[in-house]
Amino acid sequence: MSSAFVKEPEGGEAFEDLPDRPISPHPNFVTPEGFSRIEAELERLHREHAAAQEADDKASLARTARDLRYWTARRNTAQVVTPPADAAEAHFGSTVTIQREDGRRQTFRIVGEDEADPAKGTISYVSPVAQALTGKRVGDVVQAGASEAEIVAIA
After folding, report:
1. Where do the domains of the chain lie?
2. pLDDT tens digits along 78-102
3. CATH for 95-154, options being 3.10.50.30, 3.40.630.30, 3.40.630.40, 3.30.1050.10
């Protein structure tokens, strides 16, 4: 008989074994804003988990339990790094503007892995571009992807 016609077990056992989200081996550096986002995410997930329990929604229970494990681990390992007051060099938390060889300007803020969203101008401190920028000063030329770029501002 085809497995397409076999009835699934009652109770949603298929959702009980969602794999944990992978946790980075790098130190969990976060900005103060990033730590606040972790706290907010945990609060939201606790509410969703309670609602899933109330509704006996096995799929949501499994997903929220997995996400709660991840964000709890990330909160427990978070090392809040205050952005440097000195903008002479690019560091974790710095906002760096580069000018590419073709004249394009791009601005990035170097943040923690969970905070990174390149489309919004934030990059993880472990990304190749952030690694190239860290420790550099205005006027330095760095490898940014396939081309070079000059650092034109650090805030």
Report:
1. 25-80, 95-154
2. 999 998 788 899 999 999 999 999 9
3. 3.10.50.30
